[in-house]
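Example record used in the benchmark description.
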Amino acid sequence: MKSILAVKNLAVRFGDISVLENVSFEIEPGDFLMILGPNGAGKSVLLKSILGILAYEGEVRVFGKDIKQARSRIGYVPQYIDFDRTFPLTVREVIGLGCGQTRSVAGCTHVGNMVKMVGVEDKIDSFFGSLSGGQIRKVLIARALVNRPKLLFLDEPLAGVDVVGEKSFYEMLAKWHREFKLTTVMVSHDYGLVSKIASKVLCLNKKMTCFGGPGSLGIREFELTFGKGVDLHVH
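Model output (structure tokens):
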């Protein structure tokens, strides 16, 4: 099967500091890849490099093309966004930004469906800056999905979401993955999620320490990724 994302010998440096070294992997249509590693491991840097946000060495091919030629087929939810909470932009308008060039055609007809899907339909005409952290994450996910992408990148999607909502959130995520026929790449540091939603896992700590099915992550790989003496808690 032809790969939907192929990364070869990717490396990132910030000045004299090496942030990522020699990362190579491929995923196929329908995969749910979890990128797992501790804080500072380079997980977000890897995502931003693949997306062309950060400069890198090596090769990245998305749908067999350069990322610039594939952007319309990609959805992305960043870990953090910096915005002026007083800016008068509504939830409807924020999601509409994800429609891109289809704003006046089919894409934005899905905005109403998106707010229902993520559970913020009662906030559709509220100002984006008035939302809670969890609601903001849901709106950003709706924005990423509104244009019906085929490849979705999620960077720590539970940032700002209360723990009580964790189980239902990941159940929804698995449902969206199936219903949208997505290939999903999700950054996390939560080992307990691997067996629940991932079809493949990539372990990262400056360099790749493992890549494969969920069964490929054993104690050795866990220690290479998180360090020896770290307790393993599965939720």
